[in-house]
Amino acid sequence: MAPAATPTQRKDVDPVEDPAGRARFDELITADQRVEPTDWMPDAYRKTLVRQVSQHAHSEIIGMQPEGNWITRAPSLKRKAILMAKVQDEAGHGLYLYSAAQTLGVTRDRMTEDLISGKAKYSSIFNYPTPTWADMGSIGWLVDGAAICNQVPLCRASYGPYARAMVRICKEESFHQRQGFEILLHLSRGTKEQHEMAQESVNRWYAPALMMFGPPDADSPNSAQSMAWNIKRFSNDDLRQRFVDMIVPQAEVLGLTLPDPDLKWNEERGHYDYGELDWNEFSEVLKGRGPANAIRLERRRQAHEGGAWVREAAAAYAERRRAMAEKASAEKVQAA
Ligand code: FAQ
To answer: Where is the composition biased (Basic and acidic residues) (predicted)?
Structure first.
């Protein structure tokens, strides 16, 4: 990923509107083409992307915690290796996304500050606890499944670095979803206790997974503009519906029930109807009052503080290499 342009290199820093830049931006959006970091872009477009991409990056990083909890307790060496690889993938996703956000002019330090101070949002879903092994299955099947539904269209987002990062992320999420499905299938077809564990876990994760798509369209302040800019391609409700339609037949294969008495096929609409979600719960989680918000943020803060020596050592090493390179090039000039 190219390093972020410094503010003096960026064309948009002058608050004066750049009419040619604006015309070019409008042209790119109308032609459904990519906007790149060096292109002029409206400040609101840049801000929207910084908001969404950084929240997305934070979600991947915080999202490592619920599963990280189970690495030492996975039921076999094979499961442990798979889970470790998956959690590592999420770290990679966070890094691609932070890099994509950096191309918009925001620093990594700023984003980290906003996350650990509690100012920045991250996905509501990661504020739920993971008390059983079956939760690793539910996260893979439902959370990664919802992430794929939401993120495949983002591979066509108008901002180049974000769209390109999403391509690889989606490939990996698709593997994650299958490993979650396989964990649940194994449990569901196992002993009575294992089947019950799988069902109990799905009961807890179903509604929070549906809420990952964001508030209903009528209460989504950002959707219309983001869709006009080709950042979002589908509305929150459309993607939620797509997800429900996808998981109902999958739940049948799993031999598990989705905990919604209102879930039924609607012939006329050609979709499954589903029950009302608890948007109060969603709002509480977004305000930091979900079941695991405090634990997640505290853990992230501790990791950041605990990693200070690594960052200092890396900076000292980079500085030493820079000084050595400078010295070597000065010696070369002198020798010439
Ligand atoms: N959680 O106007 P809208 C993953 C906020 S990655 C928290 O509809 P927008 C991988 C929203 O920010 C999961 N906040 O907003 C993985 C806004 O607040 P703001 C993350 C939410 O942006 C798997 C306000 O509500 N994925 O799972 C949520 O147009 C397993 C109003 O909402 C992404 O970030 C929520 N669920 O649409 C990792 C995908 N929903 O910022 C580990 C990219 C809404 O104005 C293990 N993001 N809000 O203060 C998006 O597609 C969009 O940003 C939405 C929200 C759809 C999330």
So the answer is: 9-22
Nearest residue (CA) to ligand 1, atom 14:
123
Task: Please work out whether the CB of residue 204 comes within 6 Å of at least one atom of ligand 1.
Answer: no
- Domain extents in the chain: 19-289, 291-335
What's the chain's average pLDDT? 94
Query: Of all protein residues, whose CA lies closest to atom 36 belonging to ligand 1?
Result: 212
Please write the tens of the pLDDT for every residue from 133-172. 999 999 999 999 999 999 999 999 999 999 999 999 999 9
pTM of the entire predicted model: 0.93
- In single-letter form, the type of residue at position 227 comes to M
Q: How far is the CA of 125 from the centre of ligand 1 (A)?
A: 10
Identify which of 132, 145, 142 has the alpha carbon closest to the alpha carbon of residue 74. 132
C-alpha span between 305 and 312 (Å, rounded): 11
Buried b (16+ CB within 10 A) or exposed e, 189-221: eeeeebbebbbebbebbbbbbbbbbbbeeeebe
138 lines ligand 1 (CB under 6 A): no
Residue of the nearest CA to atom 45 in ligand 1? 222
Ligand 1: does its nearest atom lie under 6 Å from the Cβ of 174?
Answer: no
Tell whether ligand 1 has an atom less than 6 A from the beta carbon of residue 63: yes
128 within ligand 1 shell (Cβ under 6 A) = no
- CATH class of the 19-289 domain in this structure: mainly alpha
Q: How far away, in angstroms, is 123 Cα from ligand 1 center?
A: 6
Mean pLDDT for each consecutive 10-residue tract of the chain (336 residues)?
Answer: 39 63 96 97 97 98 97 96 97 97 97 96 98 98 97 97 96 95 98 98 98 98 97 98 98 98 98 98 97 97 96 97 96 90
